[in-house]
Predict the structure.
Amino acid sequence: MLVSALVTSVAINSGLCVLFYTLYSILRKQPSNSEVYIPRALAEGGYKKSSHFNLERLIPSPDWLRRAWKLTEDDLLASNGLDAVVFMRLINFSLRVFLFAGVIGVFALLPVNCSGDALEYVDFTDLSNNSLDLFSITNVSSGSSLLWIHFTAVYLVTIFICCLLYYEYRYISEKRTSYFLASKPQPHQFTILVRSIPVPVGSSVSDSVERFFTEYHPSTYLSHSVVRRTNKLQNLINDAKKLYSRLVHLQSDPNKRKFKRSGTFGLFGPKVNLVDHYEKKLEDIEENVRLEQSEVSLAGEEVRAAFVSFKSRYGAAIAFHLQQSTNPTRWVSELAPEPHDVYWPFFSSSFIRRWISKLVVIVACILLTILFLIPVVLVQGLTNLTQLEVYFPFLTSVLTITFVSEVVTGYLPSLILLLFLKIVPPVMEGFSSIQGYISNSAIQKSACSKVLWFTVWNVFFATVFSGSVFYKISIFLDPQNIPAKLASAVPEQASFFIAYVVTSGWTGTSSELFRIIPLLWSLMKRPFTDSKDDELEVPAIPYHSHMPRVLFFVLLGITYFFLAPLILPFLLVYLCLGYIIYRNQFINVYAPRYETAGKFWPIAHNSVIFSLVLMHAIAVGVFTLKKVPVASTFTFPLPVFTLLFNEYCRKRFLPNFIAYPAESLLKKDRQDENDPTMTEFYTKLVGTYQDPALMPINFTANGDRLKSPLLSASSSSHS
């Protein structure tokens, strides 16, 4: 890629960023857009819509930048939880890494690369027509002593990153413990989930749970709640909610048409009063819900899984850590999520079914990875004009136009890849949801890992190793040649990844601020709905799509900092944009739906370690190809040191992210002994993990009969 093509891409994306910032600064002031740009403030009652017009609404203002900049970590922790703090610390960590690497790369490595003559000298009088390869390590002659500068840079950056990783892992681990010690008693701290419950003939799941925990955990067992099959019931409740919403809108607007034909599409049949018609349908659905709830409450609808609560956190921890049965596939226990975080459709309680579903998901991910190579191959063709003209000779005349060729090679490939990648996070989230995870947070954690490694394989390796699928796979079947293959292939794609950072990083992050899809959806539905503030749904940040993107850019930066240091300024711009934009979104848009207390950090840590080892493998190959075998040999200890460091961190910090230590649990339990509100807490804990679909609903005016509890004490019991 020529410098001019990169400049074109930078100009286009910079223009889009400025446009998004300007439009956001104007549109966020319009009361009609408040549900798009400040839904959290609306839901919390911190914003009042005003119909009074003033000219200031049409003038862009940067006041939101100042507010986002002033947000402290304590404020972020109080308003969005520890997961948001971990996400922002990942961005801060990346900024520190690339500021350090940027100083070395721009002031030491870049001049060395430019002064090389392996390709040709850089012509600064005609800079736009120079190839970007002239700014990379490719331009340094083989055997040059200047390559020892790159060797030193690799060592310095590795040591700096490992020190930062240790500090961050320790800080977040301590923050997680402090967050737990400062928390009020939470139901999930006292509860575990037990699956694969054996049920004797003539007994029920509830009876089996009661007998087992009364016998083996007599001093700590408190109660249990059996899981039931409620898919059909949930569909009925969803229908009732939709109908009730329609009825409320109809009654609130006196100008709406109240009569309609009852037949198909409202075109046939006798005319009916829509209010009376909807009320009658709603009563019928409520009655069906009532009957279905009664059927579900029977023992025949029980799933062999139950939430079991204990009188202390320590008692729940013992039950979680101990193997409950001589058969490890029975009485399988795991920590319970927060009650509102439970993913109720998950319950496939059979051990073998969950195992099969995981195999199915693995196969599906592999197939998706193979299919995704199609757009990757398309993108590779666009980056090579000569190859494009061979495949499509009728485009030759168009591609000779300078601006068109610059757009096609500098901007279009990254844009196409970015659009295809948009479908990956929801697909991976769907895959994770059928693997048997018990909570939305666990599904997002699993999807986060899947999206990350999918992106690494399909955007990095598949782009670097151009060729057939079998060629890409064969490279990894011969481990000895991997460093040499990486060394020859990775530097060649430096220009593409610089353009990718600009397109996906700059514009993608700016579009997160502008919220294009929610804005368009709001504009389309506005003429047909009369939404109220109390119906507003505040979104939660999708960590499974945002965190992998940040981590992938970290991988690009670590991998290319000594190969093509020109990428570092563009990464720093991206991280600065992300730092401000995500802080603003946490203030105005996103509200937490669950709290993992920082469990996303080990994913980030492992990803950075992988990036370091990958960088070391490339360095070994590059120094070998450049005829500096001593530097190649001295690079070998780096991956060994890095993996040993990772093993130390895994032993030192990771256990604190799996479960809280007995020291912290007992400290909290002893504090609760003097808390007079614990009796009330235990009373509420009994029914906390009951499926929401089994709770009474009452949308109609004459629904007093629905307020009585559905389930008897058979579903939950006290010791």
Summary: The longest strand covers residues 302-310. The two ends are 72 Å apart (CA to CA).
